[in-house]
Amino acid sequence: MQFKSFKIGNYLIEKPIIQGGMGVGISWDQLAGSVSKEGGLGVISTVGTGYYQYPKYFDITKNGRPNPIECNSEEALIEIYKNARKICGDKPLAANIMFALSGYKESVLSACKAGTDIIISGAGLPINLPELTKDYPNVALIPIVSSARALKVICMKWKRKGKIPDAVIVEGPKSGGHQGFHSVEECLLDENQLEIIVPQVIEEAKKWGNFPIIAAGGIWDKTDIEYYIKIGCSAVQMGTRFVATHECDAPSFYKQAVIDCKEEDIFLGGSPVGFPSRKIKNKLTNAIEHDLTNNVKSNKDRLAPPINCVSNCVLPCEHGKGARKVGFCIADRLSDTILERKDTAMFFIGSNGYRVKNLLSVKELMNKLTYGE
């Protein structure tokens, strides 16, 4: 099959491959700019832009982290977009913005000011996204859903504001990071698998308009892409394979962790965001499991790092309640990854991540996905 270009709003995407928006610091300027340069859609994560690459935009606290209010820095995001544009020129770039963020409105407006062409939003139902972007009519909007029912709710709410999605991403439970289901058990149900929910979302989408359907979660190669295009999708979204590229913004030890992991190292567990998350077993996750199994409450008795909420970065966490329930602060653990604190870093990964064997350039990977392994 020869792949075709397609449009998201006013933007032509040359190849039907959208890179996953992975935070903190996994998909920023180098990765997103390189993917867009090669004809896919590069996606910049807006989470944690105050870390690592742009220290001039924040003050370091005693523990080596930005002050909470500066974790998602608008100035840093603008810089990230400028650097991505140096790589891909005027080709489309997207922002991934979690609806669960406590600073969701601010992140949306920052992405628009930074010059994003497209906003992708999940981890909840982004009901108010059209209203937040009303002053930026050229910004295309893509919700992420895991069911036809979720798309129906979004379309009903958006239609009242004179908007329908410019595309929709249908994410199944084999993706890396956060899933669109409320429990591990729901992720494992046959009826919630990607190949089942995609046709249902396609049928629901027909009731609202003609916009692209994008499949995500566990997609690995050209054969997988062809399958979803044949059943009615315009494109796919892929995250983990792009982690194992030279251009990925992740530190090298994250990339090596993906290359080294085995199938049995990948598991689904909890997250303060309120959805299950898929990650790699390591020293940190073993410590978290120990603390949960033994009902360890006190920071001084924990094997895992202490939980001290200072920013309420995601609303479902409720100032650390969610973190204590699942045994870790997601902001601290993901920031430790980008800050290369190896003993306390957390690695998100898709279900097929164990199949990664070596690093490629983005160009090499895009060619493999487009023309075959």
The CATH topology of the largest domain = TIM Barrel
Q: Could you say which structural class the secondary elements and strand pairing correspond to?
A: alpha/beta
What strand line-up does the widest sheet have? 3-11-10-8-7-6-5-4
Give the helix tally.
Answer: 14
Helix content: 25-40%
* Full CATH superfamily name of the largest domain: Aldolase class I
Distance, first to last CA: 14 Å
Topology order in helix (H) and strand (E) letters:
EEEHEHEHEHEHEEHHEHEHHEEHHHH
Describe this structure as you would to a colleague.
- The strands form three sheets. Strands 3-11-10-8-7-6-5-4 form an eight-stranded parallel sheet.
- The model has no long low-confidence stretch (mean pLDDT 92).
- The chain is 34% helix and 14% strand.
- With 373 residues, it is α/β, with parallel strands linked by helices.
- It folds into two domains: 6-254 and 354-371, Aldolase class I (TIM Barrel, Alpha-Beta Barrel), CATH 3.20.20; 262-344, no CATH class.
- The protein has 14 helices and 13 strands.
Kindly summarize this structure in a few lines.
The chain has helices at residues 29-37, 74-88, 104-114, 129-132, 148-159, 184-188, 194-206, 222-230, 240-243, 252-260, 283-293, 321-326, 330-338, 362-371; strands at 6-8, 11-13, 17-19, 42-45, 93-98, 118-122, 140-145, 168-171, 177-178, 213-216, 235-238, 266-269, 277-280. The chain is an alpha/beta fold.
